[in-house]
Amino acid sequence: MDSRLLIFTRQALTAGVSRSEIVSALRRAEWPEPEINAALHAYAEIEFPVPVPRPRPYLSARGAFIYLVLFSLLYMVAYNLGALIFHLIDYAFPSHLRSTGQTNAAVLSDVRWNIAVIAVALPLFILMFLRVTRAIAADPTKRESRPRVWLTYLTLFITALWIVGDIMALVYNALGGDFGTRFLLKVITVAVIAGGIFSYFLYDTRQGQSP
């Protein structure tokens, strides 16, 4: 959070300005709503001559565990969803290079595993994600939790590499004249999954930063 916002909020509260007036002024100044809420939440609503700060988020074992599990589930779902779609694309547009029964059995085994991972990990991810989202909405300062911030930027890094690799593969195959339907569908799959994750977390990080 921008230190200027915290300083302004503290000075306004010290001067006796009401919280509603502070919110109105910051909105007119076009500060993002989440930052306004976080700045006000940084000071407790208690009677005292000067604003009383709330404890800042810190690195806790419980918080680290929750976010490690949450992001691990996200990675598992994203990877296995992409792998499953790739198998479906290969099935819909078969290649002459894969024709043995042993290979087909291996593919079916992979598909079963992909479905099993998604069936277990996706509901758990949704439940944890909703719980974390509600917790942040109730206490905006939790947006600055260190495990959350580090894992968010790690996810941005991983998905950015995934997207860049996807573009490289597209250019490479285009230069070689290999621009078939199977390849294009796989490129689109990666772009949608990785691009969707990247776009969401990029938006989420901007929610916690000043313009």
Q: What's the story with the biggest beta sheet? A: 2 strands, antiparallel
**Strand neighbour order, sheet with most strands:** 1-2
Task: List the helices and strands in order.
Answer: HHHEEHHHH
> Residue-averaged pLDDT, rounded?
84
Basic shape: elongated
**Helical proportion, percent range:** over 70%
Q: How many beta strands in the DSSP annotation?
A: 2
Radius of gyration: 24 Å
Low-confidence stretches: none
Secondary-structure class: mainly alpha
Number of domains: 2
The amount of beta strand, in percent, is under 5%
SS element count, helices = 7
End-to-end C-alpha gap: 11 Å
Compact description:
This protein has 211 residues and is mainly alpha-helical. The protein folds into two domains: 3-53; 61-207, no CATH class.
Provide structural commentary.
There is one protein chain. The protein has helices at 3-14, 19-28, 33-41, 61-92, 101-138, 146-175, 181-207, and strands at residues 43-44, 52-53. It folds into two domains: 3-53; 61-207, no CATH class. The N and C termini lie close together (11 Å). The longest helix is centred in the middle third of the chain and has 38 residues, at 101-138. The chain has a two-stranded antiparallel ribbon. With 211 residues, the chain is an all-alpha fold.
